[in-house]
Amino acid sequence: MKWVFLGLPGAGKGTQAKKLTANRDVEHVSTGDLLRAEVKSGSKLGKSAAQYMNRGELVPDDLVIAMVVKYISGMENYLLDGFPRTLEQAVALHEATEGNGVDRVFDFDLEEEEVVKRLGGRRVCRDCSAMFHVGFMPPKSEGVCDNCGGALMRRDDDHPDTIRNRTRIAREQAGPLLSFYSDKGLLTRIDAARPADVVQAEILSYLSDS
Ligand code: AMP
Protein backbone atom coordinates (compact mmCIF):
# COMPACT_ATOMS: atom_id res chain seq x y z
CA MET A 1 0.00 0.00 0.00
CA LYS A 2 1.48 3.30 -1.13
CA TRP A 3 -1.07 6.02 -0.59
CA VAL A 4 -1.00 9.81 -0.76
CA PHE A 5 -3.32 12.23 1.06
CA LEU A 6 -3.69 15.59 -0.71
CA GLY A 7 -5.77 18.61 0.30
CA LEU A 8 -5.67 21.95 2.07
CA PRO A 9 -4.02 22.09 5.48
CA GLY A 10 -6.68 21.37 8.10
CA ALA A 11 -8.78 19.18 5.79
CA GLY A 12 -8.24 16.23 8.14
CA LYS A 13 -5.39 14.40 6.40
CA GLY A 14 -3.36 13.96 9.58
CA THR A 15 -6.34 12.87 11.67
CA GLN A 16 -7.40 10.30 9.08
CA ALA A 17 -3.84 9.07 8.55
CA LYS A 18 -3.33 8.53 12.29
CA LYS A 19 -6.61 6.60 12.60
CA LEU A 20 -5.82 4.49 9.55
CA THR A 21 -2.27 3.56 10.44
CA ALA A 22 -2.79 3.04 14.20
CA ASN A 23 -3.30 -0.72 13.95
CA ARG A 24 -1.80 -1.51 10.58
CA ASP A 25 1.56 -2.28 9.16
CA VAL A 26 1.65 1.03 7.31
CA GLU A 27 3.83 3.99 8.17
CA HIS A 28 2.24 7.42 8.42
CA VAL A 29 4.80 9.70 6.78
CA SER A 30 3.94 13.32 7.52
CA THR A 31 6.46 15.73 6.02
CA GLY A 32 5.22 18.41 8.43
CA ASP A 33 6.05 16.13 11.39
CA LEU A 34 9.43 15.16 9.89
CA LEU A 35 10.31 18.82 9.32
CA ARG A 36 9.16 19.85 12.82
CA ALA A 37 11.38 17.10 14.26
CA GLU A 38 14.31 18.52 12.26
CA VAL A 39 13.57 22.02 13.58
CA LYS A 40 13.39 20.70 17.16
CA SER A 41 16.71 18.87 16.79
CA GLY A 42 18.42 22.02 15.51
CA SER A 43 19.82 20.22 12.45
CA LYS A 44 21.03 22.11 9.38
CA LEU A 45 17.88 21.06 7.50
CA GLY A 46 15.74 22.15 10.45
CA LYS A 47 17.37 25.58 10.58
CA SER A 48 16.79 26.12 6.84
CA ALA A 49 13.21 24.79 7.00
CA ALA A 50 12.12 26.83 10.04
CA GLN A 51 12.23 30.20 8.29
CA TYR A 52 9.81 28.99 5.61
CA MET A 53 7.53 27.10 7.99
CA ASN A 54 7.09 30.04 10.33
CA ARG A 55 5.84 32.17 7.44
CA GLY A 56 3.50 29.43 6.22
CA GLU A 57 5.56 29.04 3.02
CA LEU A 58 6.69 25.81 1.43
CA VAL A 59 10.16 24.52 2.24
CA PRO A 60 12.15 24.40 -1.04
CA ASP A 61 11.51 21.33 -3.17
CA ASP A 62 15.10 20.06 -3.20
CA LEU A 63 15.28 19.90 0.62
CA VAL A 64 11.92 18.15 1.04
CA ILE A 65 12.39 15.74 -1.86
CA ALA A 66 15.79 14.57 -0.58
CA MET A 67 14.37 14.09 2.94
CA VAL A 68 11.33 12.07 1.80
CA VAL A 69 13.09 9.92 -0.80
CA LYS A 70 15.68 8.91 1.79
CA TYR A 71 13.02 8.29 4.45
CA ILE A 72 10.77 6.01 2.39
CA SER A 73 13.54 4.14 0.62
CA GLY A 74 12.96 0.40 1.13
CA MET A 75 9.52 0.89 2.74
CA GLU A 76 6.78 -1.41 1.42
CA ASN A 77 3.76 0.34 2.91
CA TYR A 78 3.37 4.03 3.56
CA LEU A 79 0.83 6.79 3.66
CA LEU A 80 2.24 10.14 2.58
CA ASP A 81 0.56 13.07 4.34
CA GLY A 82 1.59 16.53 3.13
CA PHE A 83 3.80 15.27 0.33
CA PRO A 84 3.91 15.85 -2.58
CA ARG A 85 2.75 19.45 -2.37
CA THR A 86 4.06 20.63 -5.75
CA LEU A 87 4.15 19.13 -9.21
CA GLU A 88 7.96 19.05 -8.96
CA GLN A 89 7.72 16.90 -5.83
CA ALA A 90 5.23 14.54 -7.49
CA VAL A 91 7.47 14.13 -10.53
CA ALA A 92 10.55 13.59 -8.33
CA LEU A 93 8.73 10.92 -6.31
CA HIS A 94 7.55 9.22 -9.50
CA GLU A 95 11.09 9.16 -10.91
CA ALA A 96 12.83 8.12 -7.68
CA THR A 97 10.48 5.14 -7.32
CA GLU A 98 10.48 4.27 -11.04
CA GLY A 99 6.75 4.89 -11.26
CA ASN A 100 5.92 2.51 -8.38
CA GLY A 101 5.80 4.98 -5.49
CA VAL A 102 2.05 5.68 -5.42
CA ASP A 103 -0.92 3.37 -5.95
CA ARG A 104 -3.78 5.60 -4.74
CA VAL A 105 -4.23 9.33 -4.11
CA PHE A 106 -7.04 10.83 -2.01
CA ASP A 107 -7.89 14.48 -2.44
CA PHE A 108 -9.51 15.85 0.73
CA ASP A 109 -11.94 18.49 -0.50
CA LEU A 110 -12.94 21.26 1.95
CA GLU A 111 -14.05 24.93 1.68
CA GLU A 112 -11.44 27.47 2.73
CA GLU A 113 -13.67 29.09 5.40
CA GLU A 114 -14.04 25.70 7.08
CA VAL A 115 -10.25 25.23 6.92
CA VAL A 116 -9.69 28.54 8.72
CA LYS A 117 -12.18 27.53 11.44
CA ARG A 118 -10.57 24.13 11.90
CA LEU A 119 -6.97 25.30 12.00
CA GLY A 120 -7.71 28.28 14.26
CA GLY A 121 -9.05 25.94 16.96
CA ARG A 122 -6.57 23.12 16.45
CA ARG A 123 -4.38 22.12 19.37
CA VAL A 124 -1.54 19.60 19.15
CA CYS A 125 0.14 17.63 21.93
CA ARG A 126 3.73 18.76 22.40
CA ASP A 127 4.81 15.21 23.29
CA CYS A 128 2.83 12.73 21.16
CA SER A 129 1.44 14.99 18.36
CA ALA A 130 -2.17 13.90 19.06
CA MET A 131 -4.61 16.46 17.67
CA PHE A 132 -7.60 18.13 19.30
CA HIS A 133 -9.93 21.02 18.51
CA VAL A 134 -11.20 23.47 21.09
CA GLY A 135 -14.72 23.32 19.61
CA PHE A 136 -15.16 20.08 17.65
CA MET A 137 -12.90 17.64 19.53
CA PRO A 138 -11.97 19.14 22.91
CA PRO A 139 -9.66 17.25 25.29
CA LYS A 140 -11.23 15.96 28.52
CA SER A 141 -9.20 18.45 30.51
CA GLU A 142 -8.40 21.82 28.97
CA GLY A 143 -4.85 22.13 27.64
CA VAL A 144 -3.94 18.51 28.49
CA CYS A 145 -3.54 15.61 26.06
CA ASP A 146 -6.01 12.75 26.63
CA ASN A 147 -3.46 10.19 25.39
CA CYS A 148 -0.29 11.02 27.27
CA GLY A 149 -0.99 13.97 29.59
CA GLY A 150 1.34 16.26 27.59
CA ALA A 151 0.68 19.97 27.16
CA LEU A 152 -1.48 21.01 24.21
CA MET A 153 -0.11 23.81 22.06
CA ARG A 154 -1.25 25.88 19.14
CA ARG A 155 1.15 25.28 16.27
CA ASP A 156 3.26 28.32 15.38
CA ASP A 157 1.80 28.30 11.88
CA ASP A 158 -1.85 27.95 13.00
CA HIS A 159 -2.34 31.73 13.36
CA PRO A 160 -4.84 33.56 11.10
CA ASP A 161 -2.39 35.33 8.72
CA THR A 162 -0.18 32.27 8.35
CA ILE A 163 -3.24 30.06 7.80
CA ARG A 164 -4.38 32.31 4.90
CA ASN A 165 -0.90 32.15 3.41
CA ARG A 166 -0.75 28.35 3.68
CA THR A 167 -4.17 27.86 2.08
CA ARG A 168 -3.39 30.33 -0.73
CA ILE A 169 -0.17 28.48 -1.57
CA ALA A 170 -1.87 25.08 -1.31
CA ARG A 171 -4.63 26.20 -3.69
CA GLU A 172 -2.09 27.52 -6.21
CA GLN A 173 -0.22 24.22 -6.21
CA ALA A 174 -3.28 21.97 -6.21
CA GLY A 175 -4.31 22.18 -9.89
CA PRO A 176 -1.19 20.72 -11.54
CA LEU A 177 -0.78 18.16 -8.76
CA LEU A 178 -4.35 16.88 -9.13
CA SER A 179 -4.02 16.75 -12.93
CA PHE A 180 -0.80 14.76 -12.62
CA TYR A 181 -2.47 12.02 -10.55
CA SER A 182 -5.80 12.20 -12.33
CA ASP A 183 -4.05 11.58 -15.66
CA LYS A 184 -2.55 8.44 -14.13
CA GLY A 185 -6.00 7.25 -12.97
CA LEU A 186 -4.94 7.31 -9.31
CA LEU A 187 -7.14 10.09 -7.92
CA THR A 188 -10.09 9.65 -5.55
CA ARG A 189 -11.97 12.71 -4.27
CA ILE A 190 -13.08 12.70 -0.64
CA ASP A 191 -15.71 15.08 0.76
CA ALA A 192 -13.79 16.13 3.87
CA ALA A 193 -16.60 18.27 5.31
CA ARG A 194 -18.26 15.15 6.74
CA PRO A 195 -17.64 13.82 10.28
CA ALA A 196 -14.24 12.12 10.73
CA ASP A 197 -15.78 8.64 11.27
CA VAL A 198 -17.72 8.83 8.01
CA VAL A 199 -14.61 9.90 6.10
CA GLN A 200 -12.62 7.09 7.72
CA ALA A 201 -15.23 4.49 6.73
CA GLU A 202 -15.06 5.62 3.12
CA ILE A 203 -11.26 5.48 3.09
CA LEU A 204 -11.31 2.00 4.68
CA SER A 205 -13.56 0.78 1.88
CA TYR A 206 -10.67 1.29 -0.52
CA LEU A 207 -8.26 -0.85 1.50
CA SER A 208 -9.41 -4.14 0.07
CA ASP A 209 -8.79 -3.15 -3.53
CA SER A 210 -5.56 -1.16 -3.11
P1 AMP B 1 1.88 20.41 7.63
O1 AMP B 1 2.09 19.87 9.01
O2 AMP B 1 1.72 19.34 6.60
O3 AMP B 1 0.78 21.45 7.57
O4 AMP B 1 3.26 21.16 7.23
C1 AMP B 1 3.72 22.25 8.01
C2 AMP B 1 4.70 23.06 7.18
O5 AMP B 1 5.83 22.24 6.81
C3 AMP B 1 4.16 23.60 5.86
O6 AMP B 1 3.42 24.81 6.01
C4 AMP B 1 5.45 23.81 5.08
O7 AMP B 1 6.14 24.96 5.51
C5 AMP B 1 6.27 22.58 5.51
N1 AMP B 1 6.04 21.43 4.62
C6 AMP B 1 5.44 20.25 4.93
N2 AMP B 1 5.40 19.43 3.89
C7 AMP B 1 5.98 20.09 2.86
C8 AMP B 1 6.22 19.78 1.49
N3 AMP B 1 5.84 18.61 0.95
N4 AMP B 1 6.86 20.71 0.73
C9 AMP B 1 7.25 21.89 1.25
N5 AMP B 1 7.03 22.26 2.52
C10 AMP B 1 6.41 21.37 3.33
3D architecture notes:
With 210 residues, the protein is α/β, with parallel strands linked by helices. It is built from eight helices and eight strands, in the order βαβαααβαβαβββαβα. The protein has helices at residues 13-21, 31-41, 44-55, 61-72, 87-96, 112-120, 160-183, 196-204, and strands at 2-7, 27-30, 78-81, 104-109, 122-125, 131-133, 152-153, 187-191. A five-stranded parallel beta sheet has the order 2-3-1-4-8, sandwiched between helices. Strands 6-5-7 form a three-stranded antiparallel beta sheet. β5 and β6 form a beta hairpin. α1 (13-21) packs across α8. It starts with a strand and ends in a 6-residue tail after the last helix. The chain binds adenosine monophosphate. Adenosine monophosphate binds next to α2 and α3. Adenosine monophosphate is lined by residues 9, 31-32, 35, 52-53, 56-59, 64, 82-83, 85, 89, 157, 166.
What would the keywords be for this entry?
alpha/beta, five-stranded parallel sheet, binds adenosine monophosphate
